[in-house]
C-alpha cells in the first residue's frame, strides 16, 4: 500500500472528479490519501471529503502565502476546531516562503509558531512548507522542539544536503515529491540519497508537480508510483521496500495502524 502524504483534493481540477481520482489512486495501490488544508475555505471542503471517503484523512492549516489574510487564527482557534474531527490528523501546511513573500516574514513566523504550538498540544504532526527559508525554518523548529513532543514533517523537500542533515538531527520526517523525477535535480537527489529511508515519506502535492512522464499536466495521487520508482533508484533499494518503509513511517508519525 502506497500513501500519498500530501495532496490538495479540494482544488477544483481534483475536486470536480473526486470519485474518479480516488478510484485511479486505489487502482495503483495508493490506498490512503492525506488532503492538506491551506485556508479556512479549503478546510470546509476537506471536512466533506474526509467524511465521504474512508481512506482519506485531512489537516487544518494556513499556507504561509495566506497568513496575511488570517492573522486572527491562533493556537486556540485551531485547538477548538480540530478537536471536533478525528479524521483531521495534522496541522498545516504551515511554514515559511521567502521566494514569493506574499505575506510579510514576521506574520509568517508568528503563524508558523502558532501552528507548531497547536500541533504540539494535540500531539499530531506539523506539516512544514519551507522555500528559500532554510535558516529561519530550522531555527524555529529547533527552538520549539526543545521543550515539546513536537512531530515534524517537512513536505516537498527541495533543500540542501546540509539542511537535510540538520533536520534529521532533530528527528524530522521528510517527504519527497515528483520533483525528484525532473531533469537537472542532481543536488536534490544527492540530498535525498543522504536521508535515511526510515525518515522518508512520499507525496504528490497534487494538483501540482506532476512527475515525469506527466510533467506539465495536472497531478493526482495515482501518479505517485513514478516518485516511488525514482526514490527506489536514488536509494538503490527495491520499490517494495520504499513502499513498505514510507508507509510504516507515515503510520508512525501520524499514529495510525
If you had to describe this structure to a student in words, what would you say it looks like?
The chain has helices at 12-15, 18-27, 40-52, 75-82, 105-122, 134-145, 161-169, 186-193, 224-235, 239-253, and strands at 2-7, 30-35, 56-60, 88-97, 126-131, 152-154, 173-176, 200-202. It is an alpha/beta fold. It has one domain (2-253): Metal-dependent hydrolases (TIM Barrel). The chain has an 8-stranded parallel β-sheet. Strand 3, helix 4 and strand 4 form a beta-alpha-beta unit. Helix 4 (75-82) crosses helix 5. The chain is globular, with a radius of gyration of 17 Å. The two termini are 13 Å apart.
Topology:
Layout: E1 2-7, H1 12-15, H2 18-27, E2 30-35, H3 40-52, E3 56-60, H4 75-82, E4 88-97, H5 105-122, E5 126-131, H6 134-145, E6 152-154, H7 161-169, E7 173-176, H8 186-193, E8 200-202, H9 224-235, H10 239-253
Parallel strand pairs: 1-2, 2-3, 3-4, 4-5, 5-6, 6-7, 7-8
Helix pairs in contact: 4-5, 9-10
DSSP strand content: 15-25%
Give me the side-by-side strand order of the main sheet: 1-2-3-4-5-6-7-8
Task: Give the overall average pLDDT.
Answer: 96
- Major pleated sheet: 8 strands, parallel
Show unreliable segments. none
| Estimated structural class | alpha/beta
The CATH superfamily name is: Metal-dependent hydrolases
C-alpha end-to-end distance: 13 Å
CATH third-tier fold name: TIM Barrel
The residue fraction in helices comes out at 40-55%
CATH class: Alpha Beta
Integer-rounded radius of gyration: 17 Å
CATH architectural label: Alpha-Beta Barrel
Helix and strand pattern: EHHEHEHEHEHEHEHEHH
Gross geometry: globular
Amino acid at each position: 500500500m502506497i500513501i500519498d502524504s500530501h495532496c490538495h483534493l479540494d482544488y477544483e481540477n481534483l475536486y470536480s472528479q473526486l470519485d474518479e481520482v480516488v478510484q485511479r489512486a486505489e487502482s495503483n495501490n495508493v490506498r490512503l490519501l492525506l488532503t492538506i488544508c491551506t485556508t479556512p475555505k479549503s478546510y470546509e471542503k476537506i471536512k466533506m471529503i474526509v467524511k465521504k471517503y474512508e481512506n482519506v484523512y485531512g489537516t487544518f492549516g494556513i499556507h504561509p502565502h495566506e497568513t496575511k489574510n488570517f492573522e486572527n487564527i491562533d493556537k486556540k482557534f485551531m485547538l477548538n476546531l480540530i478537536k471536533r474531527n478525528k479524521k483531521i490528523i495534522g496541522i498545516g501546511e504551515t511554514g515559511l516562503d521567502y521566494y514569493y513573500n506574499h505575506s510579510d516574514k514576521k506574520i509568517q513566523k508568528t503563524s508558523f509558531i502558532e501552528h507548531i504550538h497547536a500541533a504540539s498540544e494535540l500531539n499530531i504532526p506539523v506539516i512544514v512548507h519551507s522555500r528559500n527559508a532554510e535558516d529561519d525554518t530550522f531555527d524555529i523548529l529547533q527552538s520549539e522542539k526543545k521543550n515539546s513532543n513536537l512531530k515534524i514533517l517537512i513536505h516537498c523537500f527541495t533543500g540542501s544536503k546540509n539542511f537535510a542533515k540538520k533536520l534529521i538531527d532533530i528527528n524530522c520526517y521528510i517527504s519527497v515529491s515528483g520533483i525528484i523525477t525532473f531533469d537537472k535535480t542532481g543536488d536534490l537527489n544527492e540530498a535525498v540519497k543522504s536521508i535515511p529511508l526510515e525518515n522518508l515519506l512520499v507525496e504528490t502535492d497534487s494538483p501540482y508537480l506532476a512527475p515525469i512522464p506527466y510533467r506539465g499536466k495536472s497531478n493526482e495521487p495515482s501518479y505517485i508510483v513514478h516518485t516511488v520508482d525514482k526514490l527506489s533508484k536514488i536509494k538503490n533499494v527495491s520499490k517494495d521496500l520504499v513502499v513498505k518503509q514510507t508507509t510504516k513511517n507515515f503510520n508512525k508519525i501520524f499514529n495510525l495502524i
